[in-house]
Design goal:
Blueprint (H helix, E strand, L loop, with lengths): L5 H48 L2 H49 L2 H12 L2 H4 L3 E7 L3 H10 L4 E7 L6 E6 L4 E6 H15 L7
Parallel strand pairs: 1-2
Antiparallel strand pairs: 1-3, 3-4
Amino acid sequence: MAYYNEDQLRRYFEKAIQKESDSQIKKLEKEIDYLYHREVKKVSDDINIKKQVQMAKELKDVQIEYQEELNQIGLGYNERLIQERNDMAALIFKEIENKLKSFVSSKAYATWVKARLDANLDLINGYDVSFEHALGDQVVIDILKEGVSSKKLILNPSKAITFGGFILSIQDKHMEVDETLDAKYHEQKEWFLSHSKLFIRR
């Protein structure tokens, strides 16, 4: 999983999300269509039976009754779609989280961290700089200690960083740069939930 720069990481997120969502969408479409049409057919069949044995007034009452039932089916259908969409999104992002954890455990992670540090060296060299990193992330700690030349280097473990990467802060410049996988994950997640086609339309 050798994704070393921003563009490669973004494409990885998009590819993984699209693959998982396409599979789940097809499965969900088939299931929902089957359930919906089965219920509609059942109601329609019942109406046809009633038509054969009821007189005009009774038939009208029956039609009103079943129209309400059809409306309830439609309401339940929409509620189910919303729930299925939420469940599907949770499944997709759980898979992405697992892949991120695998990435952090791979050799490619160190290469990625080094690349993100190199991209910011011109900003930090010569300044007091602090870095936040995930608890126990020795890869980040070692790379920062080796690669940063500054007047003062402060390393702060943070529970807020789940996956990896670092957040650098330069107080003299009032500057903060977020180079965490967490930030990139949440950015992609927000984009996906806003733009995805997990809504099944007729």
